[in-house]
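Re: pyridoxal-5'-phosphate structure - here you go.
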Amino acid sequence: MTNPDYKALEDNLGLTLYPKRDAVMVRGRGALLYDEHDNEYIDCAAGIGVANVGHCHPEVVAAIQQQAADLMVVPNTLYNDKRSLLLEKLVKVSPDSIKRAYLCNSGTEAVEAALKFARVSTGRTEYVTAMRGFHGRTMGAVSATFTKKYRDPFAPLVPGFNYVPLNKIDKLDAAVTEKTAAVMLELVQGEGGVNIADREYINGVRRICDERGALLIIDEIQTGFCRTGRFFACEHYHLQPDMITVAKSIAAGIPMGATLLGDRIKVEPGMHGTTFGGNPIASAAALATLDVMENEKLAERAIETGDYLQLRLEAKAMSQVRSVRRLGLMIGLELKVKSQPVLEELMRRKVIALPAGATVLRLLPPLVIDKQQIDVVVDHLHELLA
Ligand SMILES: Cc1ncc(COP(=O)(O)O)c(C=O)c1O
């Protein structure tokens, strides 16, 4: 029996918002994906930074199965065992400044909540964010996002956003005023090209926010949960933010986001909320995912595997690579050529990688990827970029 034409169904009945790759994925294990014909792919995209613990980790699968059998929904007006334990765990693994968490369903929702909480907590209305930053697609998050192609079609947007270049402290100094509710930054810009914030710059940002009474929101939606070699990228900077937004890998693929909150965040009952936020299945999945991250020491593993990958990359002369930017297993290869044809050829060779702008090839593999799989990826990169 032949399969239905899944591609035609998606192309004709879904909205054509996403540039599609030519494969129908049906199964995943660890760092591997399998298509409908059982072809095996090495996955260096991980669902765009979601499958940090690997695809279908057995402990996460078991937690989801058990929770589905016990309880699938409970409103936020009732208490829930898994939700409460997840809140405890999230605060425990977060920087000391984080005291509470608001649970939601995606990254953009976590950002949206942070923007709203910043306004009500400060009584101010303006924000400063970074050029080449990316924060999501809802109206507030897209207003915070610099790239015009994401923003312009949807104008008029939320007013009051100022964009500054990353790592230029004088520009930020000039932009933050007594009207600024919050500065929001990624410590490593993911979609914008794997651009890493300098330590000195981030120290300066924290100081300027404190001097002017502005809150500091760090968007760890892509960098969080061991991706950069620490539980949170903030730890590389010894940074204590007022809010941290997380999502993506928090529940290994079950939709979830969270806004992690410091003491200065004050909201009144009824001001904000969401039906599915902290639902039992997502909470159980997140609890199991965070346990796997701790038990399997995935932050350390991200450093070790990232170091290995970098050594392997450096051992091969790749004339088409301008530079490699990396923190843990968040990797950007700045190419001298466009990344898209290279990504397409990698796909033909059964390696899935990502773009980050026109000339950056981004690798966000599951943190459980092994050295043999890395060797295969580097060999293909070498053949394509030598
Ligand atoms: C840094 C960052 N913030 C926010 C988002 C938006 O998250 P979501 O797609 O879950 O809404 C993303 C998604 O790529 C992201 O990388």
